[in-house]
Please model this.
Amino acid sequence: MKTSPARLLISAAPALFVIMWATGFVVARLSAPHADPLSFLSFRFAIAGLLFAVIALALRAPWPGARAALHAMVAGAFVHGGYLGLVYWAIAHGMPAGVSALIVGLQPLMTAILAAWIVKEAIALRHWVGLAVGIAGVALVVSPKLSLAATGGITPLTTFANVMGALAISFGTVYQKRFATALHLATGGAWQYVGGLLVVLAYALAMEDFRFDGSVNAWVALGWSVIVLSLGAVTLLMLLIRHGGVARVSSLIFLVPGVSALMAYMLFGEMLNAIQIIGMAVCAAAVLIVTRKQPRPA
Model:
């Protein structure tokens, strides 16, 4: 019996999503010296939104009504604007890309709580145990290099920004599952990027000068972030949300830090000490606890 391309994509989506999502932290690190973070995201979201609109027109996809479009914009404001805006800002102010990915690993706990509250998903004891173990792992990674300096590096401010970014994508993911799952991926994606653009553009206008130096790194980062991340990874995320439970989907985020840290080490020489590596291993153990399949009752 042949497997349809759609089923193959859904089967491969978790692994593809983890790899592609992990590159987002690397792109944030790559773009930081060459562009203001929120200005960079403004360019990215504007281009991605236009591409989704073009794809929607080419496919003759149905456009949502005003209410559904508003739901998509709200989801995008949190998933794209709130999450990426805060993470890019933190990395631009010295937060290592690998550590940022690990802090965002707090997302599954937040998502599990919000999913139980908003979409009434059942949360088993193993979810709570696994998520608690994951948080402990994140704490191990952050604590050795936490600095009380006002700016630069792993500071209370950059750490707080990453935590709030994790909360933003957690809420946006659950909101998407509750109110915007039925939308076409292309038209829904276009409206999502409108919502994300409104958030980052407002802050960029208030705080930045739209610096973009036009270097090779700047263009590579922008191109990768639009094609691979905004079109590819986000579409996979929406597919995963549509075909799986929110808490289970968000648990994939625990796999991202290790991949991001390896990429950051290879590209930028970012190092983790022994305690941080142990913390990463603890996070990986949390993934096994949360995502392992349970035997069906006889």
Q: What stands out?
A: The two ends are 28 Å apart (CA to CA). The mean pLDDT is 82. The CA atoms of residues 151 and 231 lie 33 Å apart. The chain has twelve helices and no strands.
